[in-house]
Amino acid sequence: MPVLDPLRGLWQRLLAWDLLPTPGPEGARRDGPVERPWRYYWDHLPKRTAGADFSARDYQDARQRAEEVARTTLGDELWQRLMMDGYLDVPSRRYSGITYRLTIGHRIRVICAPGARSPWPYEYLCINPTYPLPELEFFAHLFLYARDREDTLVRVAAPQPWDQRLGRTF
Amino acid sequence: MGRIIVANRRGHQLVEWNADTDSEEARQSILEAERILREAREKGCAVSRKVGTQHVLDDGAFDPYAEEYQIIAPIAGG
């Protein structure tokens, strides 16, 4: 009956969890061998955690894999520089004299060259991933945003007066 | 052999395909890789592609002959 079709479609979408937001850890278990975290919401998790289903071993394995992939993402030269200095500097292409200093697991520090003026009222920019990631993995992501997609970084950045560890990484 | 690095709380997981093999299984793996990239982009993720020795963010269409892609988490302030 045609009049029932919309209701049937709605019911099928409900069953497929398209309409009801699904918490991350539960949803990820349905994904099979590869978790797709962008499908779910993660805001309910305590800071710096990946879900109650994560064991100490899971955290350890995740951090180890993150190191491998961060090194692959950055390439050997940048990786060596990061290991030597403990941070990477990315010069802004949008604001003259501004450099973004990226440190693993921390807020971005905005550094001004002499005479340059920061577009933000505070020295630090707080930016998190929308789902939990190991610190090193997200560091590499943030580097790519700062270097290749500065407009996105500028749009989402929350200026803060002090440094602090990020809440959505571990 | 191409691969997608799916960055997630596990550190990362891999989706692999082989564009040099002409079989139904190989075709399906390519379709699945393309589907994952498309879905991630639709949900706000960025995608990077390995160029030389490092990754760069990439808006291009899925290339089955690419060596490596990575799904980059969406970012939010605060």
List the domain count of chain A as a whole number. 2
Instruction: Output the number of helix runs of chain A.
Output: 6
Shape of chain B: globular
Radius of gyration of chain B: 13 Å
Give the helix/strand layout.
The complex is a heterodimer of chains A (170) and B (78).
Chain A: H1 5-15, H2 24-30, H3 56-74, H4 76-85, E1 87-91, E2 98-103, E3 108-112, E4 124-129, H5 135-148, H6 150-156, E5 158-160
Antiparallel strand pairs in A: 1-2, 2-3, 3-4, 4-5
Chain B: E1 2-6, E2 13-17, H1 24-42, E3 46-51, E4 54-57, E5 68-72, E6 75-77
Parallel strand pairs in B: 1-5
Antiparallel strand pairs in B: 1-2, 3-4, 3-5
Summarize the structure in words:
The complex is a heterodimer of chains A (170) and B (78). Chain A starts with a helix and ends in a 10-residue tail after the last strand. Chain A has 170 residues and is α+β, with helices and mostly antiparallel strands. The longest helix of chain A is centred in the middle third of the chain and has 19 residues, at 56-74. Helix content of chain A is 40%, strand content 15%. The model of chain A has no long low-confidence stretch (mean pLDDT 93). Chain A has helices at residues 5-15, 24-30, 56-74, 76-85, 135-148, 150-156, and strands spanning 87-91, 98-103, 108-112, 124-129, 158-160. Chain A is globular and about 70 Å long. Chain A has two domains: 1-41, no CATH class; 46-160, no CATH class. In chain A, helix 3 (56-74) crosses helix 4 (76-85) and helix 3 (56-74) packs parallel to helix 5 (135-148). Chain B is an alpha+beta fold and 78 residues long. Chain B has one domain. Chain B is 24% helix and 36% strand. Chain B contains one helix and six strands; from the N terminus they run ββαββββ. Chain B has one helix at residues 24-42; strands at 2-6, 13-17, 46-51, 54-57, 68-72, 75-77. A five-stranded mixed beta sheet of chain B has the order 2-1-5-3-4, covered by helices on one side. The radius of gyration of chain B is 13 Å and the shape is globular.
